[in-house]
Amino acid sequence: MAIKRNISTSFNPATIQVNRGQGSRQLAAALGEQGSTISAGINKFVDERLTTLEKSEKKKGTKLAKQAEIVYEDKTFTDADGVTRTHKIATRYKTPENLLSTSWAASAFEEEVADTYLNAVTNSAKEILDAEQLIAKQNARYDTTVGEHLAVFDKAIQPSIDALLSTVPKEFQNIMQSDLNTLVRQTRTKLANSHLTGMKSYQSALTQSNNIAFDEQASTLYINDRETFQQRLTTVIQRNQNSAQKGDRQAQLWLATELPVYQTMLKSGEELSRFLNYDMSNPSSLRRTQENINAIRLGLNMQGSSISLLNDKGERETGLTAKDFGFEGLDDFGIGKLDKLLKQQSALLNTLYTEGKTTQDNLEIMRESFK
User: Fold this and answer.
1) Residue 364 half-sphere exposure, CB side, CA atoms within 13 Å?
2) Cα dihedral 331→336→342→344 (10° resolution)
3) Its pTM surpasses 0.90
């Protein structure tokens, strides 16, 4: 309509004159002006349509690129140890030729599809690294360092990463290599943190296991083998100190509460030895030591009161107190701990006494029957 309006207003019959051809010249001029106006209008119309079409086609190309179908293939990789693993990786993308009817659409598609494809390859890399990270955690040995653990992981992922990178077109390999380096670095950091946490838990559990084992032996060693008691206590102390330095709260608690009890036992061992030594083959010796332990428990729990004990020479010593054996510095926890250990040993001696007395009685009966 704009073009028609220009035609109707550009040509004015009132301007035509018949005077030596002047009218003809005016008519020609008017027609020329009219033709110029028509040409400008058409060009503008065409430009606008082309601009609109270009935008539409580029938008279509971009949309198609974002929705591009990525082709995935199962790839089998063999690591340095000969272990094979299969991963699904993005190898290429499909170009919808029948929908890219213009160079505008095709150009926009190619520009955008590169990101779509590289994102797909990156996701494939993430899946590979996640799978390898899971395997590394499942096979983790917490008696190894973080560095040793990561070295195993690096060795496992390298064949897969190299094979994945080999599927990427050369023009994208530098970009993809940079992205892969970032992913590997992030995964290694997570794996290192996980292994460090596992190491702490493992070391803590190992320390607690050693503490329990020592505790179970402590009362017997305290009475029968003070040298071994001291050696094992030294080992347990070192382990707890190492764990405590790494933030192990259980080890810190053991050093603060239980260690003072064992140290007190170590110091008192020599003084108490004459009252606690016994002969396992002699029921009377077993009974004497058990009775002495019960008396010591009484003096321990009623500090300030005096007790009497029978030494290994058969002599009774009276007026003894907890202070005489270095027990006066223990707090309530320490008293309870030491009392528990002494009670365990008393129960053991009672069992040994009963068994020994039964055996002795049976032998006596047998001797009498042969007379």
Assistant:
1) 6
2) -160
3) no
